[in-house]
Amino acid sequence: MNTNLNSPMPATRSWPSEGWAAIAGLIGSALLLARKLVAPRPGKPELMSRADFYAELGALKDHIHAGHLAILEKLDANHRELLSALDRQASRISALESGLARVDERTRE
């Protein structure tokens, strides 16, 4: 064993078969990549025709519109119910206020 740190490193052996194999691998990879990029691609089959798509789209739009109208009707019904309940409460409060005013007048005398 050589203990001198400044001694030159021994030259590595070159194995020509590994070099050629690496070059062949690179060329093969480049050819496969070029073949993949250049090769014509088959057209994708159309899953659904445009007419069918627009028909389904129209049906979906009508379904959503019907749901929206149903929600609006329910909101209107709830609004009317709340307004009638508010009117009932207002009439009860005014009746209580008038009764309390009569009691207040009786107690003042």
Can you describe what's shown?
The chain is mainly alpha-helical and 109 residues long. The chain has a domain at 51-109. The protein contains 2 helices and no strands. It has helices at residues 16-38, 50-108. It is elongated, with a radius of gyration of 45 Å. The mean pLDDT is 86.
Q: What is the compact description of this entry?
A:
The protein has 109 residues and is mainly alpha-helical. 75% of the residues lie in helices and 0% in strands. The longest helix is centred in the last third of the chain and has 59 residues, at 50-108.
What percentage of the residues does DSSP assign to strands (E)?
A: under 5%
Average pLDDT works out at 86
| Main sheet properties | none
Whole-number radius of gyration? 45 Å
Helix segment tally: 2
Question: Would you identify the regions where 5 or more consecutive residues have pLDDT less than 50?
Answer: none
Termini gap:
128 Å
Helix content: over 70%
Would you tell me the structural class of the helices and strands?
mainly alpha
Give the beta-strand count: 0
Shape: elongated
Order of helices and strands: HH
